[in-house]
């Protein structure tokens, strides 16, 4: 198996509300199927899939509490962390942890989207981002 993540899917309770939030964050929705919202994010795709369809599709029942999985958006600067967190709040998200200095030296904070899915927004100068938006581990 090649090492890559292709699509990150969030099972959502309200597809329209969630798609509106991510569009307000600046992501462009690609209309492939009316029952799913797809957003290109660098070399991966973010998909929003209605929970009532996702559960039988996956063969499981999702829990009600916060997930132990969260997403991360890395930036090219400390200031960009602040900008993304502010945009999340303006778009209807909730700041979970305001931006601050990390123990590893970077600048980071957390927001939750309207359904509580957690995102870390971080600038780590040790993890460079190329001109196409792809992040790389240090050599």
Characterization of this structure:
By secondary structure, the chain is of the alpha/beta class. The chain has 2 domains: 1-55, 2,3-Dihydroxybiphenyl 1,2-Dioxygenase, domain 1, CATH 3.10.180.10; 69-134, Roll (2,3-Dihydroxybiphenyl 1,2-Dioxygenase, domain 1), CATH 3.10.180.10. The protein contains 3 helices and 8 strands. Strand 6 (94-101) and strand 7 (107-112) form a beta hairpin. The two termini are 22 Å apart.
SSE topology sketch:
Blueprint lengths: L6 E6 L2 H10 L4 E2 L6 E5 L2 E7 H8 L12 E4 L3 H13 L3 E8 L5 E6 L5 E6 L16
Parallel strand pairs: 1-4, 5-8
Antiparallel strand pairs: 2-3, 3-4, 6-7, 7-8
The neighbouring-strand order within the major sheet is 1-4-3-2
Weakly predicted, low-confidence segments: none
Order of helices and strands: EHEEEHEHEEE
What would the average pLDDT be, to the nearest integer? 93
Name the structural class: alpha/beta
> How can the largest sheet be summarized?
4 strands, mixed
What's the gist of this structure?
The protein has 139 residues and is α/β, with parallel strands linked by helices. Helix content is 22%, strand content 32%. It is globular, with a radius of gyration of 16 Å.
